[in-house]
Design brief:
alpha/beta; Rossmann fold; 3 domains; five-stranded parallel sheet; four-stranded antiparallel sheet; elongated; disordered N terminus
Length: 501
C-alpha cells in the first residue's frame, strides 16, 4: 500500500472473486487469478461485454484488425455455440491529445478529424466482417456521465483536485492497486502536483486555446482511463461480465479502469473477466504501433489478401498469443482456407457421383464423432481455435485419403458420414465467421447453370480428344481449365467426368 510518510508501495495479494450465476462450462484465463477459471455469467440471456474502442486520430492498422477479429470470433462462439445472449458495448475516444495534435497539423477542427477516422474505422470493420457493437458511446456525447463519475470519486475521498487544476485518482487511497498486472515493489516518488506519480488524471485542465468543456473543477476534458469506466458503467452497471481489448491495454488502462470503478461502486471487483488479445508483430520487427511508424493499414492489407484469409490466420493462433504477420503467413492461411473449400467440394462431388470411393461409413462416422469431441474440448479450453484448426486438418486429411481411394467397380450406395464430415467442417468455420460453401452462398443461380453447361461441354470435347488422340483438342481443353483457374474457378477431371468449384 501507499503511505504518505515513507511512500512505500507493496503489492497486495489479490484474490479473484468467483461470481454467481450461470456456469458456461468454459475455462478462460483470468489475469487477476493468474490462471484459467470457470466462465460464469450473471445471466445467460444477458451477458455484458465491453470492448475498448479506438482513439480516432489515424487509420486503423492490422494490429487493430487482429484484435477485433479475434474478439469477434469469441463473441460468435459465445452466441452461436454456447447459446449466450451477448450484449456488446464499445466506446469511441473522439477527443484526446493525439486527436488535437493531428487536427492542429491538418488545420481542421478535432471533431471533423475524429468523425473522418471513425467512419473509416467502421468501414474497415465491415470489410473484415466484424459485427458492430450493439451500443456505441462517444466521449464527446457523454461529458455529463463522465463528470458525474469523477464527482463521486472526489466525494468518496478517492480523487482530488491538484495545484495544476487537474483532477487525479488517489492510488494511495485505494487498497487493491496492481490487481491485473504486477507493476513492481518500489513506490514512485511524488510529482510536483500529484501525491504520487502513480496517480492518474481523471480531468485534465485545459491549455490556453485548447478545446475544452466546463466543469466545477475548471475548463478541461476527461483523462483516457475515466472514459471507459464511466461509459461502461453508465450502460452496463457496477458489475460487468467481460471486458476486452489488446494486451497492451492491461496496464495502465485496464488496471486504472478497475481501480477507479471498484472505488466508485465500493466493490472488490468490477469486471469478472478480462480478455486480452496478443500483439501482432511484423516479421523480424517489434510490436506494430502507430507511435513506432511501422503500421500497415487495414485497407492496404485487404488489397493483398482477403478478409476470410486474414480471419483464418487469426484462428490459427490462440487469441492470447503473439501473431507474426508476413506474406508467407498470409499465404499459408489462404492455402488452409482453400483446402477447406476444396474438401467441401470433394464431399459434394462424392455425393454427386463424380468421385468413386470405397468408404466405410462406420470408420468415417467415428472420425466425425472424435473430431466433434476434440473441437468441443478445445473451445471450452479458453477458446483454443488453433487446436480446432489442427483437428479439422486431421479430419480432412483422413477423409480425403478415403475419398481418393478410387474404384471403378463400386455400387451407387453413398456414405452419409462423408456429408456429416463436410457439415462439421463448414458449420465450425461458419461459427468462426468463415463460409466455405462458396457454390451455395456466393454464386447466383444463373451463374451456376452457365458453369454446369460449360463444364459439361468441355468434358464432351475432352472425351472426343482422348478418343481421337487429338493433342490440339486436349490442349484447348486444358487452356479453358487454366483460364478459368485464373479467375478463381477450378475444374477437376475425374476420368469421364469433370467437376468445378
Amino acid at each position: 500500500m501507499f503511505t504518505r510518510n515513507c511512500l512505500i508501495f507493496t503489492r497486495n495479494s489479490h484474490r479473484w472473486v468467483k461470481p454467481n450465476g450461470h456456469d458456461t462450462g468454459i475455462k478462460v484465463f483470468n489475469c487477476t487469478a493468474r490462471t484459467k477459471v470457470p466462465l460464469i455469467v450473471k445471466n445467460k440471456n444477458l451477458v455484458t461485454w465491453y470492448t475498448c474502442g479506438p482513439t480516432v486520430y489515424d487509420s486503423s492498422h492490422i494490429g487493430h484488425a487482429s484484435c477485433f477479429v479475434k474478439l469477434d470470433i469469441i463473441q460468435r462462439l459465445l452466441r452461436h455455440y454456447f447459446n449466450l445472449n451477448v450484449v456488446t458495448v464499445m466506446n469511441i475516444t473522439d477527443i484526446d491529445d493525439k486527436i488535437i495534435a493531428r487536427a492542429n497539423t491538418a488545420k481542421v477542427p478535432p471533431k471533423e478529424l475524429a468523425k473522418k477516422f471513425e467512419a473509416e474505422f467502421w468501414k474497415d470493420l465491415d470489410a473484415l466482417d466484424v459485427r458492430r457493437p450493439d451500443c456505441v458511446l462517444r466521449v464527446t456525447e457523454n461529458m455529463d456521465v463522465i463528470k458525474n463519475f469523477i464527482r463521486e470519486l472526489i466525494d468518496k475521498g478517492k480523487a482530488y483536485k491538484a495545484g495544476d487544476n487537474s483532477v487525479y485518482f488517489d492510488v494511495g487511497a485505494y487498497d487493491n492497486y496492481a490487481k491485473l498486472q504486477n507493476i513492481g515493489e518500489d513506490a514512485p516518488e511524488p510529482s510536483k502536483f500529484k501525491k504520487s506519480k502513480m496517480d492518474f488524471a481523471l480531468w485534465k485542465a485545459a491549455k490556453p486555446g485548447e478545446i475544452s468543456w466546463v466543469s466545477e473543477w475548471g475548463k478541461g476534458r476527461p483523462g483516457w482511463h475515466i472514459e471507459c469506466s464511466a461509459l461502461a458503467g453508465h450502460v452496463l452497471g457496477p458489475e460487468i461480465d467481460i471486458h476486452a481489448g489488446g494486451i497492451d491495454l492491461r496496464f495502465p488502462h485496464h488496471e486504472n479502469e478497475e481501480a477507479q470503478s471498484c472505488a466508485r461502486y465500493c466493490r472488490p471487483q468490477w469486471v469478472n473477466y478480462w480478455l486480452h488479445t496478443g500483439h501482432l508483430h511484423l516479421k523480424d520487427s517489434q510490436k506494430m504501433s502507430k507511435s513506432l511508424h511501422n503500421t500497415i493499414s487495414i485497407s492496404s492489407m485487404l488489397e493483398d489478401t482477403t478478409a476470410p484469409a486474414f480471419r483464418m490466420a487469426c484462428l490459427m493462433s490462440h487469441y492470447r498469443s503473439r501473431m507474426e504477420y508476413s506474406n508467407e503467413f498470409v499465404i499459408t492461411a489462404s492455402k488452409v482456407l482453400q483446402n477447406y473449400i476444396n474438401f467441401v467440394d470433394n464431399c459434394q462431388n462424392y455425393l454427386n457421383g463424380y468421385l468413386k470411393a470405397d468408404v466405410d461409413n462406420d470408420t468415417v462416422s467415428k472420425l466425425v464423432v472424435e473430431s466433434a469431441n476434440k473441437i468441443h474440448s478445445a473451445l471450452i479450453d479458453d477458446f483454443n481455435t488453433s487446436e480446432v484448426i489442427s483437428t479439422i486438418n486431421e479430419l480432412i486429411s483422413a477423409v480425403n485419403s478415403i475419398l481418393h481411394s478410387s474404384r471403378t467397380d463400386l455400387c451407387d450406395t453413398k456414405s452419409v458420414a462423408v456429408i456429416a464430415a463436410s457439415n462439421l467442417v463448414s458449420s465450425t468455420l461458419n461459427m468462426f465467421g468463415i463460409n466455405v460453401n462458396k457454390k451455395q452462398s456466393s454464386v447466383c443461380d444463373n451463374y451456376v447453370e452457365v458453369m454446369n453447361i460449360l463444364n459439361d461441354f468441355r468434358q464432351s470435347i475432352r472425351q472426343l480428344g482422348i478418343s481421337n488422340k487429338d493433342k490440339n483438342v486436349l490442349e484447348l481443353c486444358d487452356k479453358v481449365r487454366d483460364n478459368l483457374k485464373s479467375i478463381g474457378i477450378t475444374i477437376k477431371d475425374h476420368g469421364k467426368m469433370s467437376s468445378w468449384s
